[in-house]
Model the fold of this input.
Amino acid sequence: MQQGSAARVIAACLGLAGFVVAIASGLAADNPASEILLSAIIALFICQLLGLLIGTTAEAVVRERIALAARARRGATSPKSSTDDQPGDEAPGEVLPS
Done:
C-alpha cells in the first residue's frame, strides 16, 4: 500500500459517514431539502478533513511501530553478550523486546 492511501480511505469513509448522518438527522427533523443538503455537504468536508488528520496520524503511528519492531527483530537476531539480559539496564520507559 502506498504512503497516504490509508489516510485517504479513512478520510473518504468519515466524510461519507458525516454526509449520511447529516442527511438522516435533517430528514428526521423534517427540515427543508436545501437545508439538509447544505448541512450534509458542510459535514462531508469537515468530516473528510478530520478523517485525513486521523488517517495521517494513524499511518505515522503504524509506520513508527513497524520500524520499532524491525529494529527489535534485528537486535534479537544479533549475538547477545552476557550483560544484555541484566535487569536495570534499560532506560526509563523503554520496553525491551521479549
